Amino acid sequence: MKRLLLICCFTLPTLAIAQDGWHSIFDGKTLAGWDGDPKFWTVDDGALTGTTTKENPTQGNTFARWTGGEPGDFELKLKYKIVGGNSGIQYRSFKLPKGKDRWRMGGYQADIDSGDTYSGILYGEQFRGILANRGLITTLGEDGKPTTVGTLGDSKAIQARIKKEDWNEYHIIAKANVFKHFINGVQTSECTDNDSDTRRATGLLGLQLHAGPPMKVQFKDIMIQQAGSKTTTKAGKPAAKGKKATAEAKPKKKAAPALASEAKDFTVQITPNGGFVLRSEPLDADAMKEALAALAQANPEATIRIQAGKAASKEHAKAVRTAAKEAGVQLRARNNKRKQ
Fold first, then answer.
1. For position 204, which CATH number holds?
2. Nearest-angstrom CA–CA distance, 94 and 72
3. Measured in Å, how far apart are the chain's first and last C-alpha atoms?
4. DSSP-derived 3-state class of residue 316
5. Whole-prediction pTM value?
6. CA-CA distance, 6 to 18, in Å (whole number)?
7. Are residues 190 and 132 in contact, defined by beta-carbon separation less than 8 angstroms?
8. Which residues of the chain have a pLDDT value below 50?
């Protein structure tokens, strides 16, 4: 039987792992792993929150981007709540070279609306406009224009299943050139993109905060299951073919940590194959215990290997081992000398 492999740049305060391959990409406590304008994006009540006010409006649409890679074939599930305005979930997207800020994005968007029209549609942000309205199945021709080929239900009936100013669950499935959206278990739209010159096979994930009247949108329980993706190196460049890219925080120029809770850049790996990288804040012993318990639940027979970052000193590595010991992990010595 194949064993699950999970590689984490462990900095997450909490980590949710499911046996079916779903992984949490938001820790519910910090913005670790997400990059957005701090004037608008915060963590509030365990949710990644975007807010605009009359006193603090956004100049143009702005986004919080996930920094963990560029998913290809994937499924994404999250819960959202919106009060006023418009939002959306960007996927297979790209950074816009021009805009009001450096967080502008374009690409496929699973739309979110505080009104009654757009929630659940497939919209192309700076990317061909509306691609599938709610309740419709469409195909895009080589010209990028949508043609309706089927229906999923009445748009108003689907809207009636979406809760106002309350939590809803969004589910996105992107496989090859077919995109499906679901809200609260009801399929809202489907599109097959046959525009071979424009369609995208991989790209960035992001959350939208729309320009306009004051609004607030929140996201939580953000989970992803990936089949194909493009990971990035520390410099943000694509990883070389055949090589595994990891995201490691750059070590600060200071003395080695005296406390286990200060240990950084350590990795927990379940062997023998596969991989998933998360970027976040350092773990203390209690958080590490919680994360390791989740790994053990995913595969009780797995071997767990703990190692310090590449730039770690002996004192640093010792602090990492101490943190693991405090978390109740049984340690086994291993000779891991590097080649000179």
1. 2.60.120.560
2. 13
3. 36
4. helix
5. 0.65
6. 11
7. yes
8. 1-19, 231-267, 270-281, 336-340
CA distances from 81 to 46, 49, 84, 177 (A): 12, 9, 10, 28
The whole-angstrom separation of Cα 309 and Cα 9 is 9
Closest CA to 102 of 179, 38, 153: 38
Distance (Å, rounded) from C-alpha 35 to C-alpha 64? 5
At 48, the amino acid letter reads L
**Number of separate domains in the chain:** 2
pLDDT value at residue 137: 98
Instruction: Give the Cβ contact number of residue 188 at 10 Å.
Output: 29
Nearest CA to 183 out of 80, 63, 83, 72 is that of 80
Identify whether residues 80 and 5 lie together within a single domain. Answer: no
Which residue range forms the structural domain that includes residue 59?
26-230
pLDDT tens digits for range 208-264: 999 999 999 999 999 999 985 554 333 333 333 333 333 333 334 434 333 444 444
Distance, CA of 242 to CA of 239 (rounded, Å): 8
How high is the pLDDT of residue 260? 42
